[in-house]
Amino acid sequence: MTERSERLPSGSVGRAAIVSGVLIAAGTGLGFLRDLVMADLFGASGSTDAFLVAWTIPETVSPLLIEDAMALLMVPVVTRLLAGGNGLRPLVGTALPRMVLGLSAVAGALAVAAPAVVDALAPGLAEQGPAVQCVRLTAVTVVTFGVAGFMSATLRAHHRFGPPAAIYLAYNVGILALIAGLSGAVGITSAAVGVACGSFLMVAVQLPAFLRCLRGAPGERGAAPSGNVDVRLGLAAIAPIVVYTVTRQSQVFVERFLGAGLAAGSISHLNYAQKVAQVPMVLSLLIVTVTFPRLARASADGDTAQVARRIRQDLAVASAMVLAATAFLVACAPAVIRVLFEHGEFTSADTASTAAILRVYALGLWGQTTVGLAARAFFAQKKPTWRPAGVLAVGLAATAAIGGAFAASAGTLALAAANASGITLAAVLMLAGLRRGVAPVPLRRIAADVSRLALAAAGACAAGACAVGMLAAGAPGTPALVRTVVGGLAVAAVFAVLAVLAGPDLVAPWIASRPLGGRHRRGRTESGDSSEQADRTHLSHGTDRTGPAARTEADGRGHTARAAGTDVPLGRPLR
């Protein structure tokens, strides 16, 4: 085996995050353009509600087979195969065809049962015929998203983040092209055709890099890992991840189920607000996507101290990003929606309704981000765990109870508040579960970090709202774009100042160029993070309870494992 085949592509978290960020931002931008085009052409009406019921299928399949379940399952599997010097061809040759066959059966069943699916998702929907047609068209994504997710997880385990980050760029190119070409002839159905075609482009954009990974994999040792891989890919490993992902997506099911009984366009208002609110969450979770292979490696090595530090540092940075975005959205929601959507068939009444929903949705962004981060820590473990799914079930129950109780009186605002409340409850419970079941996470330090950032966000939100209000009072005819920019600048400036005053250590450890976590110095890390009692106990005994956290060891080629608190370089040969 050559040295090149033994090594993963070298790089750093920062460089991978920049490349992924650019591609994801481009895909997100096209996704926004897609929503703008749909709002302009179709507005918020019964026909858009019908499409969004069908859109539930790719919305559910995407986290299940691309973003969450497939990544949480496959990244650790491939990482361990590479660590053992084994090949990927047996895994691809056995698992991929079986997966495609099973997903094809699911897609066919969805197409045949489309009328029943529409009735189950949105009983009482005004335009069921278009919804059934769109469901049948979007059912193909069950197969294509599965293949795209398999490729994406494999590439990320090889620390190749570019092609996976480009999948939504390709996806939205396909949707926009078909809307442009067919909307005049078939109306909203053109969007469903675009979803199907765009899903094939998600596979095509990753195929060259995926084939290079297979060609570069070792051949002579390829048959060795079949037993362990089969166990990992068994039902016992897959079921908790699938249930977790479906339970998380079920918040949307609850919204659309309850929203179908409200006025026409309610589901569309919820969707437009949610799409805007999800942008900062997706960007903040980019950090978790890039660092997940490192977390999986630390977990595989038994380094619970490093896992705890990895979680705290990622959560600090992600919380800073998402809470700053929350402040901006709450302060500037009407102007943001007016700039983005109030064109063509999208009216000022649609803007007012969507902006009010957006403000409430934004309050749950921290919970959404934290759940995504914490779940990866749970699923990086060798043994499958049901805890994330159980915690999300509690949050979903809260969402359904609040939404069901108040939807008739408060309408879409009740559904948005139910979403925010349920996911925040789940986030708090999941963080508490990390300490008991994963690693000695410093909960008091995390609570202090988030509290300081939340106070900074509250101050920034007040400053942004004041800036927009003063501008509107002094110059009533100011364009919405100017109000958005002024409010955004005020929020960003005040949040930056308050965050620094609250403690520059909140994000400095991740941004620093040195390896994350630092070396221990008299009970403190270089990042300024005091070790929890559990960490100090494990390290002081020098046992192998935390694996490499308590010692260094030779890897057989003259390298030594890093001491506790140091990150695993991306270019380091895996053992």
From TrEMBL:
Pfam families hit by this protein: MurJ (PF03023)
Membrane topology: Multi-pass membrane protein
GO molecular function: lipid-linked peptidoglycan transporter activity
Keywords of this entry: Cell membrane, Cell shape, Membrane, Peptidoglycan synthesis, Transmembrane, Transmembrane helix
Cellular component terms (Gene Ontology): plasma membrane
Region (Disordered), start-end ranges: 517-575
Transmembrane segments: 12-33, 69-88, 100-118, 130-153, 165-185, 191-211, 315-337, 357-379, 391-408, 414-432, 453-473, 485-512
Gene Ontology biological process terms from the UniProt entry: lipid translocation; peptidoglycan biosynthetic process; regulation of cell shape
Biased composition (Basic and acidic residues): 533-544
Entry protein name: Putative peptidoglycan lipid II flippase
Native species: Actinomadura luteofluorescens
